[in-house]
Write a structure and sequence with these properties.
The complex is a heterodimer of chains A (about 600) and B (about 120). With about 600 residues, chain A is an alpha/beta fold. Chain A has helices at about 5-10, 35-45, 90-100, 115-125, 140-145, 150-155, 170-180, 195-205, 215-225, 230-280, 280-290, 295-325, 330-340, 345-355, 355-365, 370-385, 385-395, 400-425, 445-480, 485-500, 505-515, 515-530, 535-545, 550-560, 565-590, and strands at about 5, 25-30, 60-65, 70-75, 105-110, 130-135, 145-150, 160-165, 185, 205-210, 435-440. In chain A, a hairpin with a 2-residue loop joins strand 3 (about 60-65) and strand 4. The chains are: A alpha/beta (about 600), B alpha+beta (about 120).
Chain lengths: ~600, ~120
């Protein structure tokens, strides 16, 4: 790899300067060019890396040694422009550049797409900050027959230009050196100040394209997944594979192993024996191994029932994310989503919601208008089951029948349609036009996939498991103080009367308010204990699916939309959930449905 | 004289939706009846001079613009005016090599710049 301009300037030894605060270096660039990979390489910290625009929607910061000093490195959301109409995540980056806190800008560019990168360079130059241009993915560009004249570009802009292959770590040392020589870019615009014309002309001058016959399979696949005739069967196949891996292997095989073998035969008996021997007080024993015990309930739910499914889901989901497949679904989804006041782009937050609704709620920032963001947040809260919950649904209903599953998903999908359709008409505002970039299809890099999956599992353990334990303690306290029976009694008219469920399931719904999957795990145990009939399981799970996902998701809704809209969504969604459950219950009874 | 030049160049331009799958063209201009949309397209590289190839028309309109693959709804594609005939020119230039294309571009650039400038 080569580094131009930088070398000679950096040869002069840099003087250690005293600063009030560390130098702040900001990574900026078009979406999906590898900013987060470079961030990870520079700082040793992992920022989620995927193959679709909009993976990073907030700022991530870390430290890196540049020259002789430790600098702050900030990874920013991808931007296509810094002027004019900007999406929420683009504004995050713009505000950062305008804040005066950024000292050096590193523009990361896809070497294949010089023209678009230069359009952005001309806008970044407007901030007058010292900058370095990184031409990333030069290997992919060369395979496509594209060469960029890096020295020529450095001369044109008057800034260091570094070529990198960030995923392999190539060129990162050059970048560290180049950072010392960063200088403000000069963009020779014509007298009309026409950026597009300059970018076009400069790119034509500095970029050479040879004909290449790369990737016939790539072209074939890329076409197959977005055309209806082949794309829909492929989608069905992908869903089936995900179901086999997560629903069968994860939710049945692995859960069976961990819950029955590890917990049922080893951990719980051992914990009970230990508690019996060392804890003379019945209350303390119950606290750990009673019906609402930390080990018997909290850990069992979190580790034995949910973790195996979440882990398998994160793995297969990460693979799909990195392959570039998910954004291609937007091509199909656009027409459907338009009915709901959204456009095809909303497929990203919706599909990401299957991983975690909280993260997906944050991803709604990539949508174009406030109305679209509100509708997407609402639909995520209402209908999209997250991985953990999907797991318990598959675990319970998969064992009953295909039709039970179909009923649940059918009801949820119809409900989302109806709510989306009405919201599109009732809520003020406009939807934006569907304009979306499809990233290239790529074979996922195993290292990134493994790292991402492990970090997500760790995130689950840190974020969700404590909530499971808090929930268990809460239930334990309610039980010991005698409040639980009263709540169950108070909930009876709704739970038993309207939904036709056994009274004990009231406690499951309390858990469900904390986390949907925690509640669903409770249903899983009720169903296994034979306390729920098939139709009751469907009703209970449908209601649970339609609830607001979890406390964390609710907090994120407040953060993204404000307290009042979030509360309104909470009340609305809970009402819809209970009303749907009631309707379903009466429909089952009225038509005598059995599974 | 300038006016005549712009009229003739626009007359040769067609809406992108009129191109068949596999059809190629060069962006002449993007209609600015919806400025936000035009800005977003421009940020994605759909600017005068960009080469376009239509990949798919249904259910969504998908085209390649330089090295990016973009999916849009039909009304957006409708607002993009392309000059066709790019197919033969481009493929011939690809074979002949880089130098010829550069020459071609610089001669075309004057018109392009003028056309886009006149739209603002």
């Amino acid at each position: 790899m080569s580094c131009h301009v930088a070398a000679e300037r950096a040869a002069t030894p840099s003087v250690l300067t005293l600063r009030a605060r560390p130098l702040e270096i900001v990574l900026v660039g078009n979406p999906n060019v590898g900013k987060s990979v470079i961030f990870g390489r520079l700082t040793g910290r992992y920022a989620t890396v995927s193959n679709y625009p909009g993976t990073t929607v907030g700022l991530t910061s870390g430290h890196a040694l540049v020259g002789a000093e430790v600098c702050d490195i900030v990874d920013s959301p991808g931007v296509n422009a810094l002027e004019g109409e900007l999406s929420e995540d683009e504004q995050v980056t713009r505000r950062l550049l305008a804040s005066g806190k950024a000292d050096v800008v590193v523009q990361v560019a896809d070497a294949r797409n010089l023209r678009r990168a230069l359009m952005l360079t001309s806008q970044i130059a407007g901030f007058g900050l010292p900058m370095v241009v990184v031409l990333n993915m030069v290997d992919e560009a060369r395979r496509h027959g594209i060469d960029v004249d890096a020295a020529g570009l450095a001369a044109e802009l008057g800034v260091p230009v570094v070529e990198t292959v960030a995923v392999d770590g190539q060129g990162l040392d050059d970048l560290r050196v180049a950072l010392l020589a960063a200088s403000p870019a000069r963009v020779p615009l014509n007298r009309l100040g026409d950026r597009a014309a300059w970018a076009h002309e400069a790119a034509a001058r500095l970029r050479r394209a040879r004909p290449s016959s790369v990737g016939r399979l790539h072209v074939f696949l890329s076409r197959a997944v977005r055309q209806p005739l082949t794309g829909l069967p492929i989608l069905a196949f992908v869903l089936y594979v995900v179901y086999l891996f997560v629903g069968v292997f994860g939710a049945q095989t692995l859960v069976g192993l961990v819950e029955r073998r590890l917990f049922g035969q080893v951990i719980i008996p051992a914990a009970t024996a230990l508690a019996d021997r060392f804890l003379p007080w019945a209350a303390a024993r119950d606290f750990l191994v009673g019906p609402y015990g930390l080990v018997t309930m909290g850990l069992t739910y979190a580790i034995a029932i949910v973790l195996p499914v979440v882990a398998t889901f994160f793995l297969v989901f990460g693979w799909l994310e990195d392959s570039g497949y998910i954004p291609r679904l937007a091509v199909f989804a656009d027409r459907i989503f338009r009915v709901m006041g959204l456009n095809g782009k909303a497929v990203l937050p919706m599909v990401l919601g299957l991983g975690c609704d909280t993260m997906a709620t944050m991803t709604t920032r990539i949508l174009g208008t406030p109305k679209e963001r509100l509708i997407a947040v609402l639909l995520l809260a209402l209908g999209i089951p997250c991985s953990a919950q999907l797991a318990t649904i598959l675990g319970i209903l998969g064992g009953i029948s295909f039709w039970a599953l179909a009923t649940l998903f059918g009801v949820v999908v119809v409900q989302m349609f109806v709510v989306g359709f009405l919201a599109a008409r009732v809520l003020p505002g406009e939807r934006s036009d569907f304009i979306m970039e499809l990233p290239p299809l790529r074979l996922p890099v195993m290292r990134n996939l493994a790292l991402k999956t492990l970090l997500r599992i760790r995130w689950y353990l840190w974020e969700a498991v404590p909530l499971f334990l808090v929930g268990t303690v809460l239930l334990f306290a309610l039980d010991k103080t005698g409040l639980l029976p009263r709540i169950v009694e108070a909930g009876r008219p709704v739970v038993t009367g309207l939904l036709g469920l056994p009274a004990e399931s009231a406690q499951v719904f309390i858990m469900g308010f904390l986390r949907r999957d925690y509640g669903a795990a409770g249903l899983f145990q009720l169903a296994h204990a034979g306390q729920l009939s098939a139709t009751q399981s469907v009703v209970a799970l449908t209601v649970m699916t339609l609830f607001v996902p979890c406390v964390a998701n609710f907090m994120m809704m407040i953060k993204e939309q404000g307290l009042r809209p979030a509360l309104a969504i909470l009340v609305f969604v809970t009402t819809v959930a209970l009303a749907t459950g009631t309707a379903l219950n009466y429909a089952f009874r009225g038509f005598g449905v059995q599974y | 004289m300038r006016f005549e030049a712009s009229v003739s160049s626009i007359e040769r331009a067609r809406r992108l939706t009129l191109l068949e799958v596999g059809g190629r063209g060069v962006v002449r201009r993007v209609l600015r009846d919806n400025p936000a949309r035009a800005d977003r397209l421009s940020a994605l590289g759909v600017t005068p001079g960009a080469r376009i190839r239509v990949l798919q028309r249904y259910p969504g309109f998908v085209f390649e613009c330089d090295e990016s693959e973009l999916a849009v709804e039909p009304s957006v594609a409708h607002a993009i005016l392309v000059e066709d005939g790019g197919e033969t020119t481009e493929s011939r230039i690809q074979k002949i090599g880089f130098r010829r294309r550069e020459a071609e571009r610089s001669s075309r650039g004057i018109l392009t710049r003028w056309a886009s400038g006149s739209m603002r």
